[in-house]
Amino acid sequence: MSSDWTPDESSETLLAEKGWLQGAVVGAVAYGIEVALYFMCFHLLFQQMNRTNYKKHLPPLIYIITTFILSTLFMVSLADFTQLAFIQYRDFPGGPNAFENIMFRLPVDSLGNVSGFLMIILSDGLVIWRCMVFSKGCMVPMWIIMFFPCLLYVASTAIGLMWLLQVTTNIPYLSSTSINYTVPFLSFSLALNIIITIIIVLRLLTYRRRISKVFGSSYGTRYMSIATMMIESAALYSTFSVAFLTLFLLNNPISATFIGALTQVQIISMLLIIFRATQGKGWSQDTMSRVMTSRPPVQVIRMDDFKHTLRDGSKTFAGSTGIGAHATYKNNDPSPAEAAV
Q: What is the pTM of this model?
């Protein structure tokens, strides 16, 4: 195809515009996944709600509705602003990339920034709560475990407010400063999620070791699998954020591909946690005690390994030929001393 049709812009500018447009597409795909997860969560929560347990199911229901509305507003803003830059004002001096960098205070873009900020704060708040659930019963006091994550959460919220004011208002102090609050805001949020990811994974590994020691390695695996650790610790968002921030700090234009889907991926991680908890598979405050006090399956032990005695509850079934068919059933329930963790 003739290069005469290529805009008279630098290769870096063209690459940035490609990244932005592709980011809008990736964000739309992530939003589609989010819509499916939202309706799955809503259906389960609404189906399980009744007059006796509505106080338990109402908070997560309000949470997913709120995040879904914010996510929808964010996608509307992203789609409309992309349309303005690439279609309606395509002849803006410098092209769509310059339009984005200069006209970011338009109301439609401010709508997306406010929605994105609120989604990040709500999602970080959820992982804080999940960390508190996993920290219950730990030998280390909960306030020691939660002090630094809560401190990061407060700092992330404060810097996020500074960033939001910087990109949506014309306050002289914020508009004239050379500080770009985007990196500090996302860095604090990422640090918070990484720390909580590590805490939750370490707690799950500790529980897995304790349960395996008492019941065997195959018991309680639905709470201890790799998929469980990935979902419960929101590792999906942490991985995605690391990729974005690395490219952003390197001033790579491809980072624009990630920013369009960053908040959507975070909401997907949160909805996966809620969906798993609503199914009854998620880790709750009494999961450890429930697993440790449940009765493992009865194992059949061959009589050939033992002498033909009635020791350990042996039962003998004699056939007409006089050959005894022996089977021993032994309960694997641990004693209270064995079950102590």
A: 0.77
